[in-house]
Design brief:
Beta-Lactamase; five-stranded antiparallel β-sheet; about 575 residues; rod-shaped; alpha+beta; 4 domains; single chain; six-stranded antiparallel β-sheet; about 50% helix
Length: about 575
Amino acid sequence: MEGEAGSSLRFPDVPKLELDDLIDQLVDRARGVQRAQGRLRALLRAIETVTGDLSLEVVLRNVVESACELSGARYGALGVIAHDGGLDQFIHVGMDDGAVAEIGGLPQGKGLLGALISDPRPIRLKHMVDDERSTGFPPHHPPMDSFLGVPIHVRDEVFGNLYLTDSEKGEFTAEDEELVIALALAAGTAISNARLYQESRLQQRWLTASVEIGSQLLAAAGEDPLRMIARRAIDIADADVVSVGLLTPDGESLLIEVAYGVNAQDLVGQRFRLTETLAGRAVEERRGLVLRAGDDVDRHSHASSVLDAGPLMVLPLQSEDTVRGVLSLVRERGRPPFSASDLAMAAGFASHASVALELADSRAAEQKVVLLEDRERIARDLHDHVIQELFAIGLSLESAAALLGSDAAAAAQRIQQRVEDIDRTIRRIRTSIFALRGPLDLVAGGLRQRILEVATDLTPALGYPPHVSFSGLLDIGVSADLVDDVVATVREAVTNIAKHAHASSATIDVSATATQLTVTVTDDGVGLGDVTRCSGTGNLRARAEQRQGSFEIGPGATRGTIVKWKVPISHD
């Protein structure tokens, strides 16, 4: 018994080895389960990180960083696929800004990157150089060996691809591939949600801008409506240049009224034929257009005259009956294209802006009617009261001059001169009445209108506006060719004042009787001087003599010069 008590337990060697193997296997499997559990936790953390933000830019970067951490990759990138099959965006991690600057431009989607774009299925390589599709790296690019590429699907489309290189284990495993695929599925959902959130915020900004424009257009004062439309559009649409053009009265051309952005100052005021531009196509089809760089179109964008135009949107500003203008939003070549949702939102904005402009036009027309009615009342009061009183005073003065007789010739002359002054004042008041009544009282292309246009044109040269007065039926009894001669006479006489008289005031008086038309131009300048050197006076004399009229030029009553041009009026 003692011997048995002092002896140690012994197990056969063979059974002991089998048990050790079983225990080792259990430990390995436990470690595998623990490792898998750890990686699943890492996957859950990565998914939580990816789905934890609604900003698309943040989501994309989180996807790349989480994929690198999950797979143990040193470098990672996410390439967003463009409409033309290339890369629209390339978000990368692992390289500092200095290395990126040395490499230069972003990848063009060739080689292995292009292989994933053309065939969106996972690619896992131990050595990239072993794959025939690999095209190497550009200068200054860091060396990379192992590779894992996984596509990211958003709904039914391939949004982009995840590119991971240089595994810390030497190569990416099948388990790495499965985890990254799972992450890519979650990333697709996160990107979709971020897109929807981004679109909803953009839609809200378009609607807010529409409300602001409507409120501003109905206000009594404030920013020009077309300028406000362009300013808000370029801010919201992230465009490089935005322009608002209105159709010309003949409907054949587009005149750019307002522009914002790159070289916008060179675009304002330009006129483009509708048949030659995409704006014309939008007007013809009465719908918005979205074009991407490289699209084959038969017309160019008018913005091409000021920048290298790439993606663009063209939207007609239209009411139910007519198109009044075009809103154009352009990005430079190489920038992301406008999407269908961009077009839908911008079209809604353009529609609201068109309605607001129609309301503003109606309001302006109503205010114009009120203004014209008020001016008509003032003109009527001037005609019915002031002119009649002045006319009565003139008659009284003429009677007083007649009573003085020959013994008071000087006094009679002075009274007669005052009568002429009153007549001149009456003519000026009548001219003011015509101005108050505005274009409703002017015949288009008539003598009154053209004389007023000449006075306006020569105001800068004179340094002050000339006084203009009319008398008689100037817009009815004067032939078209005589109108041209009268306008030329007035222009020549006033131009001479601007060049030679050094006057502080000038007066244009045009009067017509049944048989004669008289133009009188006076100034308070330095006087005649050497009139023989002025070829303009010879032209005035020749025009009068060709019509069997007369031309006189002489000193004023106190100073300055008086020009009288008289011609008979023929009635055919």
